[in-house]
Amino acid sequence: MRTARKVNAVLLAGDRRASIQLHHENKAFLELNGQPLLIHVLKALLGAELVGEVAVVGPANRIRGALEAVGIDERVIVVEQRENMIENFKVGYVASLGLDVAVPFWDLKGSGHDATPVLVAPCDIPMLLPEEVDEFLKRSNMHEYDYSIGVTSRDLLSLYHPREGKPGIQMVYFHVKEDLMRHNNLHMAKPLVLDHLDYIEKMYEWRYQTRFANIVRMLFSLLFNGWRLMKSLRIFILMQVSLYYDRHGHPHLSDRLRSLVGFNRLSEGIGNALGARVQIVYTHFGGAALDADNEKDLAVIEERYDEWMALQRSMHT
């Protein structure tokens, strides 16, 4: 086991800049099986063997009300949201260290907390299991890396695709030499050592890479951030063109291009952009990747929730 002790977590439940609302509501408070989405994720985090305390960042009064309704109070720190995702993460990280949230994040650099990692998860992955959280944490090597990004293979996620007349969720996958994969929304990081933490927010805001405008924004961002990002730019272009060919019925061309981008190059490219040593970590359940990013996917999760949760639990046993 690479993670030898418990780590604290930050659960992001904000509804300000770059957040996506469903049904004109903060996704965190939409109900699934009678409980808000954030409660499903929180229970998975608290149920994991390797998670200590969880700082939940969002509209504080609503979060406290949701916690009171289900009787959760221990090991949870409620933090009022700031103006965007990165600011929410920063204040959540400060709270996860047991410090007053008024302490400026960057004042902690060089204070002895630089090597303290934190787990980060969004509020819209209600099918997350404690076992998947522990698998990710056990595989995250925070001794040799600064940032671990969770992924899940298309081979596994195909179990959740539409099939046999039943609705499902079919995602857009990253194309690399070894696999087609999906980011699964789990992050593990030592944030005080990341040179370009603000770039994560840009990637989050432009995360829908099938939208042409977002692709252009990402390209120009890489171009104007200096020569050291040229490797990242090359990898980004190869992955985008490979994805384009795959979506337009040219799988052989797609495969030829993705053969030029391996895991090592991908992690190196992300590391160049963030100024960090980056590790890509597989999990093998699927729940962490099934985010409720739109009303259609949320409806599918509602319809197939019990069936898919049983499927995940069978993977563990």
UniProtKB/TrEMBL annotation:
Residue span, MobA-like NTP transferase domain: 9-151
UniProt GO MF annotations: nucleotidyltransferase activity
Pfam families found in the cross-reference section: NTP_transf_3 (PF12804)
InterPro entries, sorted: MobA-like_NTP_Trfase, Nucleotide-diphossugar_trans
Name the UniProt record assigns to this protein: MobA-like NTP transferase domain-containing protein
